[in-house]
Amino acid sequence: MRIAIGLEYRGAGFCGWQSQPQGCGVQDAVEAAVTAIAGTRTAVTAAGRTDAGVHAALQIAHFDVTAARPLTAWVRGVNSHLPPGIAVLWAREVGEDFHARFAAVQRGYRYVLLNHPVRPALHDGLIGWHHRPLDADAMNRAAMHLIGRHDFSAFRAAECQARSPVKELRRAQVERHGDYLLCDFQADGFLHHMVRNLMGCLIQVGAGVRPAEWMAQLLASRDRTLAAPTFDAAGLYLAHIRYPAHFDLPENPDRWPFAT
Predict the structure, then answer these.
(1) 184 among known catalytic residues
(2) Where are the domains of the chain?
(3) Local confidence band at 13 (pLDDT 50, 70, 90 cut-offs)
(4) CATH number 3.40.50.1820 given to 106-238
(5) Coil, helix or strand for 78?
(6) Residue 252 Cα distances to 97, 104, 233, 239, angstroms
C-alpha cells in the first residue's frame, strides 16, 4: 500500500531534505524511522527538496510498504524514532496514482522576517532579520511585477537542476505585523533558491536602495548577476502543498507557528 504523510521540521541542524552520504538530510532521518516501523528498508519521496536551514510547516511525502500497520503507527510510531526537530503530523492511505512530488499542483512558501534594529535571540535560526526600516507597501508594489508566468532565471541558483526556468507565480504578498513581515509566495513550482533570491531583492526595494520597478527590470533581464545576493535561509518555511481534491489530503498545518 502507499502511505502519504504530512511532516513538519526545523531545518536548522539538517543539510536540507535530500539524503546525503553523511546522513544529515531530513530524508535520512525519516527513512530510518519509517524503516523501523515497516520492518524493511523503505524509501520516502517528498513534495519538495528544501535547502539546508529551511524549515517546513508542512512537507508531504509518500512511501510504499507491504507491512500492515494502523495509520497511528505511521504517526506516533514513526515519531518515536525521529529526532526532536522532525515530526509526522498525519498519515493517510492513498492510491498508486498519488505521488508527493509529481501530483502537486501548487506549492507555497512563507518567509518570516524580523524588521527591528536588534537581532533576534528567542527565534534565532527560525526567522530572518533586517535591521533597517522596510517599506512593506513598496515591497508589495515590486512583488506585483512577479505575478504570472515568467522566466525566473534572474532568481535562479546556478546549481538549479530544473528543466525550465519558467514558473507561474500566483501569489507574492508582504504583510507587516508589528516588527514582523510575513512574505508569502505561491506557485506551480519553484526554482532552487528562488524565494531566497526574491527576498534579497524585495528587501533592497523595501530599504529604498532600489525602486519597485527594478523588480520588473530584473525579471526581464533573466540575469542572476544583476539581482541581490541570496538571503538567509533561517526565515523560510515550506508552508503548503496543494493536490487535486480527490486525494483528500490536508492542505495546511494545524500548528503553523506564524499564523496571522
Answers:
(1) no
(2) 2-103, 106-238
(3) confident
(4) no
(5) helix
(6) 22, 14, 21, 7
* Element at 61 (helix H, strand E): strand 55-64
CA of residue 12 relative to chain centroid, distance: 13
Cα distance between residue 136 and residue 51, in whole Å: 26
Q: Give the Cα separation of 200 and 240 in Å (integer).
A: 22
pTM over 0.90: yes
Query: Looking at 51, 151, 232, 248, which residue is catalytic?
Result: 51
Tens-digit pLDDT profile for residues 121-179: 999 999 999 999 999 999 999 999 999 999 999 999 888 878 899 999 999 999 999 99
**Contact criterion met (CB below 8 Å) for 145 and 211:** no
Closest CA to 154 of 109, 208, 110, 201: 201
Domain 2-103, CATH? 3.30.70.580
- Whether the domain at 2-103 and the domain at 106-238 fall into the same CATH topology: yes
- Backbone phi, psi, residue 148, to 5°: 115, -175
Residue 230 CA, distance from chain mean position: 15
The answer to whether the beta carbons of residues 47 and 30 sit under 8 Å apart is no
Which residues on neighbouring strands pair with residue 172, listed in sequence order? 185
